[in-house]
Amino acid sequence: MQFRSSVLFALGGVAMLSACSSVDNSGTAVAYGGNPLTYGNSVSSAISGQEPSTSFGKALKAEYIAYAQREADEWYDFFDADFFAKKAGKVAENETLLPEDPANWRFSDEEIAQKRAVRDELIALLDDGKREEKPETAAIAQARFDCWIEESEEGWQNDLISQCWKDFEAAMAELRKEEMATPVAAVAPKESRLFTIFFDFDSVAITPVSERVLDAAAEQWAQSMGTINVVGHADSSGAAAYNLKLSERRASAALNELTGRGIKGDSVDTDAVGEGELLIPTPDGVREPRNRRVTISVD
Asked: How far apart are CA 286 and CA 150, in angstroms?
């Protein structure tokens, strides 16, 4: 996480080297940051402390404790183990904790913007009553998002990064479902899954984060074998004609990635709208990372 220094800790005979990064997001450290020397006390306090009063709080506390113990027991990362143990303790005190803010971790500005767009959707669902309606699923979504953030910052356990993302996406899919009273004899309408990938300024390059989103989209298609709609977008900076071409190139880049993952080309419809359908409304000429995107709808 961003506020760790590159120090070699010797603890219990295990050498631990904290993650390094050239990105400086100084001054944004979370107040309850981790300490490798206090992990034991932190996890013990969280386990033996009071139980949260809500079902969501109880589930989230359990998720954070389990993740803290894995960080320590499997990967000997006592710094982050203590961090998540302390988060569990805060939940036990009935303190409302939001998913991790990517700005508190060592990411570039573009990565922060992309990850915040994912976080914004999660928070919107949680605030829309999903903590109460589906407490265990909501807790999994928040804990796996935090896992994805922490492991992405470290950047070396690719299998774990992918698993955190897949677990997060599965939980999000459950949270997105509309609860509708449907007569027993009626056939429930088929629900499309929406995936979104984001791009750097004036770029069509697929980022590592987007790779994992495309993996999830391809897995969803393999289950449904339905139709995929790919729509390219651009922000409002630059000329409208140029932005339309840029959005076409982004849609084409996404299509190439999807077909490379085994999706049949005749199952994919592509479109490009340039700056015509901004996710975040802005005046003309504004650079907005969340508007530089491709949406992928899987039926």
From this structure: 31
> What would the pLDDT profile of 2-17 be if each residue is shown by its tens digit?
334 333 333 333 333 2
Cα–Cα distance, 101 to 65 (Å, whole number):
20
190 or 4: whose pLDDT is higher? 190
* Token reading at 160: 């774990």
The larger pLDDT score, comparing residue 19 to residue 90, is at 90
Average pLDDT over residues 282-298: 90
With vertex at residue 273, the alpha carbon angle to CA 267 and CA 275, rounded to the nearest 5 degrees, is 145
- The CATH label, of 3.10.180.10, 3.30.1330.60, 2.60.40.10, 3.40.50.300, for the domain at 193-298 is 3.30.1330.60
Looking at residue 191, its pLDDT comes to 62
For residue 220, CA distances in Å to 166, 214, 215, 216 come to 11, 10, 9, 6
For Cα atoms 33, 158, 2, give the angle at the middle one, nearest 5 degrees: 25
User: pLDDT digits over 50-104, tens only?
Assistant: 889 899 999 998 999 899 898 888 878 888 888 998 888 888 777 788 999 998 8
Q: What is residue 204's predicted lDDT score, i.e. its pLDDT?
A: 94
Domain ranges of the chain: 8-176, 193-298
